[in-house]
Specification:
The complex is a heterodimer. Chain A is mainly α. Chain A has 5 helices and 3 strands; from the N terminus they run ααβαβαβα. By secondary structure, chain B is α+β, with helices and mostly antiparallel strands. Classes of the chains: A mainly alpha, B alpha+beta. At the A-B interface, helix 1 and helix 5 of A face helix 9 and helix 10 of B.
């Protein structure tokens, strides 16, 4: 999960707890950290080289913004298979079009209503981490 | 024309002319015989010469010849011995010859003199006519408002009309004989040699010049030059007409300045629009996040305290959540509204009938379980941005659905009325609660609401959105209503010519 707002992170984790998925979540606080994680550099240089099963990506991020991260992922041979879900506050059509053009796998606008928000996050987690078969080379869920 | 005004002796008929010769010789003969009877001696020759001269003067050379012959014969017959015969002795021949030569000389002199006089008279007549024509032309040139003056090839002014006097302030007397471009302190747009070259090549030149008036003010003129050539084709004079374009120039400069200002302003406007877009974006993003957090944490708190909360506590929690949701809707509507102002309209021919059907399908979702009678009339085509028009219709229809909620049986009619040659007028009519016409001017304002929010929910942006969409199509929107007697909303939009 790439998300700069700690409250959003906390609320998202609460939502994911119901499927026991919270522990599996690695949080990057900005675009640069996300790329560091994916390329196993900086603070993440010792992690296993597997790709995440899904990436939940906010668009408005410090340093490197979400669209830039998305562009990097989708233009890198090793990373392009990672399913990326844009999870954003913005309903801007411009952002949506830009994301799909870059090859995003899903685009979700965070609902203001908490129930809807929890449902959205939970279903996302369930779908991508449980129902969906991730591409080869992804971290398997350690149930 | 000349000969009619001043009849010349040459025009007398031959009979008159020869008659005159006969008459003058007869008179001379009569006078000579009479004078001889009074004992005057040798008067006949001068008298006959005089007769020949008169005939020559008034009758021309032919008459003079006849008078000469008659004179000789009369002289011979009456005065040369033997008298009363035409016999001429050899000794008299030289005398006759001298007389004839002298008479011829008189004739010749008089003919030449007359011819010279005639020529002089003709020349004078011609000159008079020319002077008349010239002065007429000059006074015509004086009548025109245009500034006209003529200068010779040395730039010396030879003609200066009233228009020139009015524009520059000098009288003709003050300018004639002066050098034009020194007097007017002309500033040329190109080297004078180039201008002269063009004038000599093509006979014309025109351009804009700057000159100075008598009072010293500068004046911009549109100047046209025409070259006049003399009969040998040599350049003789330049006719120059000037039109004062100072005011036009000033306006042109003003327009240019205004255009620059306009360009600057529209650049500023574009900048402001960009800023607004950025603002709307951050509203969309940054205002929603804290709202979501408020709602989220309230929900979590609720879950945790659920058992400890009394009824009031539950209600307070519910109010917080409801408010957060409402604010979320407000932000969404406001964003949609601002997007309409910013978005480019993509116009095409749109079937209103299809559009109303689509809007209806969307609105029906919110009117589940209600008894609504829909009356949809025949609708024309419309020229506009499809998605915007659809949004406007959805807003109007959902408004109608909302404000007929208190009716056991709602009736909503969509139709077309008062279609004119250049306008399509669409209306949406309901039998709902209506509104007080007193507040009609508030109806389309942003965040303006005419009903309390616990009776009819809403953000107060729907009709503002409708109005903005209609305005972006160059149309008008208005409404009529009676309190508790339903409301009718009208949209009028200009028709394109090809539908």
């Amino acid at each position: 999960m790439v998300e700069d707002d700690p409250k959003d992170v906390e609320l998202s984790l609460v939502a994911l707890e119901e499927y026991n998925l919270a522990n599996e979540v690695i949080v990057a606080r900005d675009g640069e950290e996300a790329l560091d994680y994916l390329y196993c550099r900086g603070a993440f240089q010792n992690r296993s080289a597997d790709n995440p099963a899904v990436m939940l990506l906010d668009l408005k991020l410090p340093k490197v913004d979400g669209l830039e991260v998305l562009k990097q992922i989708k233009s890198d041979e090793k990373l392009r298979m990672i399913p990326v879900v844009v999870l954003t506050s913005s309903k801007e059509e411009k952002d949506m079009v830009a994301s799909y053009k870059l090859g995003v796998n899903a685009y979700v606008v965070k609902p203001v209503d908490f129930h809807e928000f929890v449902n959205a996050i939970r279903e996302l987690g369930a779908f991508w981490a449980v129902i969906n078969e991730p591409p080869p080379g992804s971290i398997k869920k350690g149930v | 024309m000349v000969h009619q005004v001043f009849p010349s002796p040459r025009l007398l008929s031959a009979i008159q002319r020869y008659g005159l010769a006969l008459l003058s010789v007869s008179v001379a003969l009569g006078a000579a015989i009479f004078l001889e009877s009074l004992e005057f001696r040798d008067v006949e020759v001068p008298l006959f010469l005089f007769a020949v001269a008169v005939a020559a003067w008034y009758g021309g050379s032919g008459a003079a010849g006849l008078a000469l012959i008659l004179s000789c014969m009369s002289f011979d017959y009456f005065f040369v011995k033997p008298i009363h015969t035409l016999y001429v002795t050899a000794s008299d021949l030289p005398y006759f010859a001298v007389f004839a030569a002298f008479a011829s000389l008189v004739t010749w002199f008089s003919t030449v003199r007359r011819r010279v006089e005639q020529e002089l008279r003709q020349a004078r007549d011609k000159l008079q006519i020319e002077v008349l024509e010239r002065s007429q032309q000059a006074s015509l040139l004086n009548l025109t408002h245009d500034t006209i003056f003529v200068r010779d090839m040395n730039d010396v002014i030879t003609y200066w009309n009233r228009g020139a006097q009015e524009l520059y302030g000098w009288t003709p007397e003050e300018t004639l004989g002066k050098r034009a471009n020194e007097l007017l302190r002309t500033i040329f747009p190109a080297p004078i040699d180039e201008i002269r070259g063009e004038l000599l090549r093509s006979g014309r030149w025109d351009g804009e010049l700057e000159k100075t008036k008598a009072d010293g003010t500068r004046v911009a003129v549109a100047s046209r030059w025409s070259l006049r050539r003399d009969e040998h084709g040599r350049p003789a004079a330049i006719l120059e007409t000037n039109n004062d374009i100072t005011e036009r120039k000033r306006r042109e400069e003003e327009i240019q300045l205004l255009n620059q200002q306009l360009a600057r302003q529209s650049a500023e406007l574009a900048g402001t629009n960009k800023e607004l877009e950025a603002f709307a974006y951050s509203v969309s993003h940054d205002l929603r996040a804290p709202l979501r957090h408020m709602a989220g944490y309230t929900e979590l708190l609720h879950k945790r305290l659920s058992s400890a909360l009394d009824e009031k506590g539950h209600r307070y929690m519910a109010m917080i959540l409801e408010s957060a949701k409402r604010m979320g809707n407000l932000i969404d509507d406001l964003l949609a509204f601002s997007r309409i102002g910013r978005a480019e309209t993509q116009k095409s021919v749109v079937s209103l009938e299809h559009l109303v059907k689509e809007a209806l399908a969307e609105v029906r979702e919110e009117s589940d379980g209600r008894d609504i009678v829909w009356k949809i009339g025949t609708l024309p085509n419309f020229y506009g941005d499809r998605s915007m028009l659809r949004l406007a219709l959805v807003n109007l229809l959902s408004n109608a659905v909302k404000f007929t909620r208190t009716r056991p049986r709602a009736e909503i009619e969509v139709g077309c009325t008062g279609e004119t040659r250049d306008e399509v007028v669409l209306f949406v009519k309901d039998n709902g609660v209506g509104f007080d016409m007193k507040y009609v001017n508030k109806l389309f304002g942003v965040f303006q609401r005419l009903h309390q929010s616990d009776t009819f929910e809403g953000t107060g942006i729907g009709l503002a959105t409708v109005q903005r969409i209609v305005h972006r199509h160059g149309g008008r929107v208005w409404a009529e209503s009676i309190i508790d007697g339903g409301a009718t909303f009208y949209i009028a939009a200009p028709k394109p010519n090809d539908i």
